[in-house]
Design a protein that fits this description.
Layout: E1 2-10, H1 14-32, E2 35-40, H2 45-51, H3 57-65, E3 68-73, H4 89-99, E4 103-110, H5 122-125, E5 129-136, E6 146-149, E7 152-155, H6 161-176, E8 181-186, H7 192-204, E9 212-217, H8 218-227, E10 234-237, H9 239-252, E11 260-264, E12 270-274, H10 291-303, H11 308-323, E13 326-327, E14 337-338, H12 341-349
Parallel strand pairs: 1-2, 1-3, 3-12, 5-10, 8-9, 8-10, 13-14
Antiparallel strand pairs: 4-5, 4-11, 6-7, 11-12
Helix pairs in contact: 1-10, 1-12, 6-7, 8-9, 10-11, 11-12
Length: 352
């Protein structure tokens, strides 16, 4: 298999962690007989510095022409005072829109080797956690009509049927590849858009008879995530609820340095990135944890390229590296072997 991957390392530690992810990707290619052609493009603050805009037409075109996109991180205090219309974060919105990405996958995985880092009790987390939040990315209250009046303000949560149907189907498809359990989160006791959401889930469910489906109101779901997170396999929900729940789920795992994410559209191409920020204070110091970006590559192999064996090889290599006691500073504890960004990448690559 030959695939073209657009690399957009971005700002801060983005180039550091993307470099290690590419190292692991090429190790997979060598071990399994694939060719991954990687080309780098500027995006975010570095693009503002060079071109005056957070994303050029050329970068967008290259990403559209690629088989998938691997992103590092964008932004930082350096660009906090630029015109709001060209802030680095605008590049992410533009790229998602340009690529037609409407589905955000946020796995909250906790490796048993790092269970000490979770704020939850041992009896709650057991031997680890593995929850996938499937968040609708382009609709809902963030994109609805908004405005201000003389004595107030308003934001509108609006969903069209097709928007709900496509994200719900993604949720079922992801569940079929996992433990075949789907929790739909809404606020159907109050919101009309949530009532439509729930009815669509019920209508689509018979198409996936192997998947067990249940519904939770968002307030209950947020409580259950910390009370009994192991009950969840896949959570599918709207934009705003997904934004909140995915952040909550990430924190119960103990370290955002371990968590990847994916944004998908109708086709096979997606954008893959760690959930952490650009951390400019440690950029270029060989300190950052590259595992979230490396695990984002595993998601790329699984969801865009259909390479399950290769994706599992990366995840297994990460687990073996942790078993061997290697830790970057963000996950280090006494008795472990502290390593830098590059050596962590080396350790994972050599175990592919």
């Amino acid at each position: 298999m030959k695939k073209v991957i657009a690399l957009v390392p971005g700002d801060g530690i983005g180039p550091d962690v993307v470099g290690e992810a590419v190292k692991v990707l090429h190790a997979v290619g060598k071990a399994y007989g694939h060719e991954f052609v990687c080309e780098s493009y500027l995006l975010g603050g570095c693009s503002i510095d060079r071109y005056g805009v957070p994303m050029t037409d050329e970068t967008l075109a290259a990403c559209k022409a690629s088989d998938s996109v691997l992103l590092g991180a964008v932004g930082g205090p350096k660009w906090d005072h630029v015109d709001p219309s060209i802030r680095p974060e605008k590049a992410l919105l533009g790229l998602r829109k340009g690529l037609g990405l409407f589905c955000n996958l946020r796995p909250a995985m906790m490796y048993p080797q790092l269970r000490h880092a979770s704020p939850l009790k041992d009896e709650i987390i057991g031997d680890g956690l593995d929850v996938m939040v499937v968040r609708e990315l382009t609709g809902g209250i963030y994109f609805g009509k908004r405005g201000t009046t003389e004595d107030g303000a308003f934001d509108t949560m609006e969903y069209h049927r097709y928007e709900i149907e496509r994200i719900v189907r993604k949720g079922f498809e992801i569940a079929m590849k996992r433990q075949k359990r789907l929790t739909s989160v809404d606020k159907a006791n109050i919101l009309a858009s949530s009532q439509l959401w729930r009815s669509i889930v019920e209508n689509i469910a018979p198409e996936y008879p192997e998947v067990a489906v249940n519904h939770l109101y968002v307030d209950n779901a947020s409580m259950q995530l910390v009370r009994n997170p192991k009950q969840f396999d896949v959570i599918v929900t709207c934009n705003m609820f997904g934004d909140i729940l995915s952040d909550e789920a990430s924190q119960i795992t103990g370290s955002i340095g371990m968590l990847p994410s994916a944004s998908l559209g109708e086709g096979s191409r997606g954008m893959y990135e760690p959930i952490h920020g650009s951390a400019p204070d440690i950029a270029g110091k060989n300190i950052a944890n590259p595992l979230a970006t490396i695990l984002s590559v595993a998601m790329m192999l699984r969801y865009s390229f259909g390479l399950e064996q290769e994706a599992a090889a990366i995840e297994r290599a990460v687990g073996e590296t942790l078993d061997a006691g290697y830790r970057t500073s963000d996950i280090y504890t006494d008795g472990m072997q502290k390593v830098g960004t590059k050596e962590m990448g080396d350790q994972v690559a050599r175990r592919i």
